[in-house]
């Protein structure tokens, strides 16, 4: 087990980035100058992405008469493509592209069945010949039909036969980005509203498939949330979303640094455990072995489980401050993939008391 592993001047509501133009005559009069979908830049929008991108987010207007898009050169298509490809662009606009009917439906099911966290579907892009996905028929959402070329462009897959729907959604309020140490004064009790009894901490997990799988596993085994240390990939990366199958929209996720994690540890008196290979040349301290007895001894103790990057394992900080735990394995296997090892840890250490 290598446990290294926002768009025009006016909007329908404060959170919807699409301006629905009411004046069709105005649109017709300007149709010779404007494309079917227009882009307007509002320099006063001061939505900062992060410390590496200080440019304000632009707002995109999708006129109300647009119900189909056939060209990949359409400005709205370009906007959606950039949402899929760029983390900074996603977070500047607070929107994310979810590809595939099954993940979209799972997200909506999560919202209906779990904890009341809601996610706004800003727009549902459907293949021109596709039916509305089962379970979404009753939702009041805007539907735009798109051609196979547009679907292929936005989905990022060669064959569009298996991709009939793409949803433009708001990044959920359950995701919190603690940008710097100024956010340490933030009330950490709000990070994981239900409980902080079991929190998965990911240390520089860069592979989006592994990160998404771990978030899904944490959700499946009733963990209370995930904390992403620096170096982790974006949980709303398209590959991470496919792997998490909607869990990224339901499980509370906090992105922060070690100073934030120390605040959480102190507030809830949490024990820090870290997965570590048993067979390694690095042996900074004794290793505990994961077992039923070990898990039972920690049943009432609030825990942070830290899993490290695929290539480099745990960071020096994690190895220094955490109790190291290994998964017993037969033979001379050095490690497991971090998502496999993480699944075992998450199952064994899950809360049995319903905390």
TrEMBL record:
| PANTHER family in alphabetical order | RRNA METHYLTRANSFERASE 3 (PTHR43191), RRNA METHYLTRANSFERASE 3, MITOCHONDRIAL (PTHR43191:SF2)
Its name, as the record gives it, is tRNA/rRNA methyltransferase SpoU type
Q: Which GO terms are recorded in the biological process aspect for this UniProt protein?
A: methylation; RNA processing
- Domain tRNA/rRNA methyltransferase SpoU type positions: 199-347
What superkingdom heads the lineage?
Eukaryota
Under Gene Ontology molecular function, one entry of this record is: RNA binding
Keyword hit for Transferase: yes
What is one Pfam family matched by this protein?
A: SpoU_methylase
Q: Enumerate the UniProt keywords alphabetically.
A: Methyltransferase, Transferase
């Amino acid at each position: 087990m290598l446990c290294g592993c926002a768009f025009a001047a006016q909007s329908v509501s404060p959170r919807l980035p699409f301006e629905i133009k009411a004046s069709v005559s105005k649109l017709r009069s300007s149709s010779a100058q404007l494309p079917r979908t227009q882009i307007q830049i509002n320099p006063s929008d001061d939505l900062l992405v992060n410390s590496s991108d200080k440019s304000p987010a632009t707002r995109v207007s999708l006129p109300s008469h647009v119900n189909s898009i056939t060209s990949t050169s359409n400005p709205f298509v370009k906007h959606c493509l950039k949402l899929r490809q760029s983390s900074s662009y996603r977070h500047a606009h607070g929107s994310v592209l979810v590809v595939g009917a099954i993940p979209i439906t799972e997200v909506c099911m999560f919202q209906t069945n779990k904890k009341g966290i809601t996610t706004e579907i800003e727009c549902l892009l459907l293949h021109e010949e596709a039916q509305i996905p089962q379970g979404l028929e009753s939702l009041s959402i805007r539907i735009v039909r798109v051609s196979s070329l547009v679907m292929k462009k936005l989905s990022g897959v060669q064959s569009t036969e298996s991709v009939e729907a793409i949803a433009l959604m708001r990044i959920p309020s359950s995701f919190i980005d603690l940008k710097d140490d100024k956010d340490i004064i933030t009330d950490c009790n709000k990070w994981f509203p239900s409980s902080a009894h079991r929190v998965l901490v990911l240390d520089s997990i860069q592979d989006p498939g592994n990160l998404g799988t771990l978030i899904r596993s944490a959700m499946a085994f009733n963990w209370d949330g995930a904390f992403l240390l620096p170096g982790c990939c974006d949980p709303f990366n398209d590959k991470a979303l496919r792997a998490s199958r909607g869990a990224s929209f339901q499980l509370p996720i906090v992105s922060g640094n070690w100073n934030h994690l120390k605040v959480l540890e102190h507030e809830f008196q949490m024990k820090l455990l870290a997965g570590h290979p048993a067979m390694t040349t690095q042996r900074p301290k004794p290793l505990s072995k994961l077992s039923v007895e070990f898990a039972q001894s920690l049943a009432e103790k609030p825990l942070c489980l830290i899993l490290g990057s695929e290539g480099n394992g745990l960071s020096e900080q994690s190895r220094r401050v955490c109790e190291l735990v290994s998964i017993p394995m037969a033979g001379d296997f050095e490690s497991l993939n971090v998502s496999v090892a993480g699944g075992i840890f998450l199952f064994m250490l899950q809360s049995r008391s319903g905390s």
